[in-house]
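This section describes the prediction task in plain terms. A model, or a person checking by hand, is given the sequence of a single protein chain and must write out its three-dimensional structure as a string of tokens. No templates, partner chains or ligands are provided. The sample shown here is typical of the held-out split.
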Amino acid sequence: MNRGRQNGGRQPSLAQLRAFAAVAEHLHFRDAAAAIGMSQPALSGAVAALEEALGVQLLERTTRKVLLSSAGERLAVRVRAVLGEVDALLEEADAVKAPFTGALRLGVIPTVAPYLLPTVIALVHETYPDLDLQVHEEQTSSLLDGLTAGRLDLLLLAVPLGVPGVTELPLFDEDFVLVTPLDHWLGGREGIPREALKELNLLLLDEGHCLRDQALDICREAGRADAPVTTTAAGLSTLVQLVAGGLGVTLLPRTAVRVETSRSNQLLTGYFADPAPTRRIALAMRTGAARAAEYEELAQALRGAVRPWAVRVGCAAPAPPPRPQGGHPAPAPGA
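The expected answer:
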């Protein structure tokens, strides 16, 4: 707060503050000058200039020794604190110059987080040990808000997004798998036609999950008109348990199948005939991000980590076009 300083707006320099801090510590001009690598006349001049800038006497000089004035004792505490913060600033600046250091605020959608995060975390710990990974699980619209506002640095989610100013770094494509109760099987586990979805009671995630929208899109492509939704779930784990209880069937992304179906022996999984319905998983960053090269390297490392999975790495085929809806111009088809 400006309290009406009468020094004409002169600001002390860091050199002046360091000179005074050295004198306050050593109470001797020669020792202080040697400690900070400054000549004694330059040191004395810097302290005098600081006193003039502040408009107070900081030192009491005698022929034998140097003492701090009462004002000098009070201000020395402040000066040490200021210099400590400046040093911390310089250390932080040096740290962020190095790749894969500092904080990385990663946003992840709920239908990716439980299945891909263990791989992401292990990769970061093993390959980028100085990176401070901070994870935030949210739905796509909230993640995009966080990315554009600067609250998040990088997103891990389903694409395409179709949002200006956001660059996507594709990781892999994965098929959707049909999950049914044991007593509701379709006669085979391979080559299931999409048209089979016309007659099934498909269980969906709640409103707001983009994976719900993609499942509905798959049904429309199969020729099924929208049907009333009577049962929904907040997450895939609940959805699968509803299927195990015989309330209907659902679609799971391939990466979620092992985790979610291992909790029950009342489930069967089936695979669609080619071309199977798919979703694409990618990293997303602000276009022109300062750490773009790091994010691209991380994306390449993740592609290598998931290559043994039952997914298609490289994503040569074009992604399906985004389906516009409320909120952002075209939210991701999976959350």
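For orientation: Confidence is low (pLDDT under 50) at residues 316-335.
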